[in-house]
Fold:
Amino acid sequence: MRITQLGIVALLTGLISLTLTPHEAAAQITASCSARDEKGGEKFFCQVRSVAGESLSDIKATGEGGRALEFTSEPYSWTRNRTALYFLVQTADLNADQLRRVGQFLERAASPVGERQIGLGTVDYSFSERAALGAYRLQVEREVQAIATGSPTRAYPEMTDHIRPVIDKLAAVKADRRALVLVSDGASSASAATEREIADHARSKGVLIYNLVLAKTDRPQSSLLNRISERTDGAARDLATGSNSDVVKLASDLFTLIENGSILHIDARGLPQETEVTIKASAAGDRQLTAPPVAVSRLTEDSFQERALSFMSRNMLVILAGLGLLVGFTMILGSVARTRWREGREAQMEVVDSDPEAPLDPNAPTEIVFKSVAQSSEPLGWLELMGADGARMPLHAGSTRIGRHRENEICLLNNSVHRRHAVVQASDDGNFLIHDLATTNGVAVNGARVSQKNLANGDIVELGEVKLRFTANANAVGTQASA
Structure:
């Protein structure tokens, strides 16, 4: 009898755990859509994202009645799409070691590179905004250093008191995706009503919330901040007992969770004024995932011609049966003409990368133009043009853009080089990371094409037909690291 009772209790416990943690039970994708009236016609811009940071493929979009919707798509990229992130950091009740740990995470995560906009605020006795959204990189780095070296305080802060104003700050900026990153000790005494109010407000503003616990204090732990994260399609991570390398990895994992998926451009012509869009995608293991339907309101009304064409396309068989062969033949011609017209319009609207503009002349030397920026320190390394010229281009700490456009720090006047080809990120400790900016001609290191790769002394970097040798300055790295 007692064994039977224990079995029933275990079964109920399992069912309850599945009910309370749906995000852990199965992978999920989310979608959001908005209508935009553009020169080529109204479109729905829909974003699809994996909550777990998985790669998505075979994306499909359907309207009411399962009607397939025509669209083009592009992968979400931090170099092209704007992500607004605000880091709300609890600094009270943490000791000096824990503050340094938080600073180590922020040093790698709160970095405004590419199109990312970063904001930073702290909570101790009250809320203090350290860097407004869109702040310059040097300001953010200075405030992160101040947090890491700050003096411990005792204030017993309630993080939920300061979340709503930050959500409003994120909603006020123009961005493709918005996320609020909470860095706390996991403690909260807020009510369930507060949890619902914050989660509903964040969802209405299109803000994801992530709760990261990097250090715990003697305050009672609560799962309330974790639940808020889950209800906004964000995530929660507890690394209070993790190693420093785990904290560093979390910084890159965070952007994988936020900046995955694609943006869909759906042609809205012919769709109802109130349209419900459902997006499906495939994940690893051939799993089919479906996002909750999204209701979209159109901004414009179709002309009579567009409504007529849409009606004909949806009721072609009925018209053919009712009007006979002659009318049916006329409608087929109209449908063909409509298809060709739409294809021509779409071809005009398609964004084509014009790089390279002309075939490479093998006899024309590569010209180099690079910005001369006053630097107080010695370069951390160089990129040397391989060939007769042998020009050396210095690499300092931070980001160095390379391409054919003159706005780049290093301008390579060669037709095989794209206008914005690559970015080299150099850190004071001597790490160099090169990123391919989604180019056609690509980036190769030692003959192997890469999307991003750490550079080592003597590596040969190829941008199109241009070959560069990377040389690290060991003396400068040692001096700046010790400083």
Q: What stands out?
A: The CA atoms of residues 384 and 392 lie 4 Å apart. The first helix runs from residue 2 to 20.
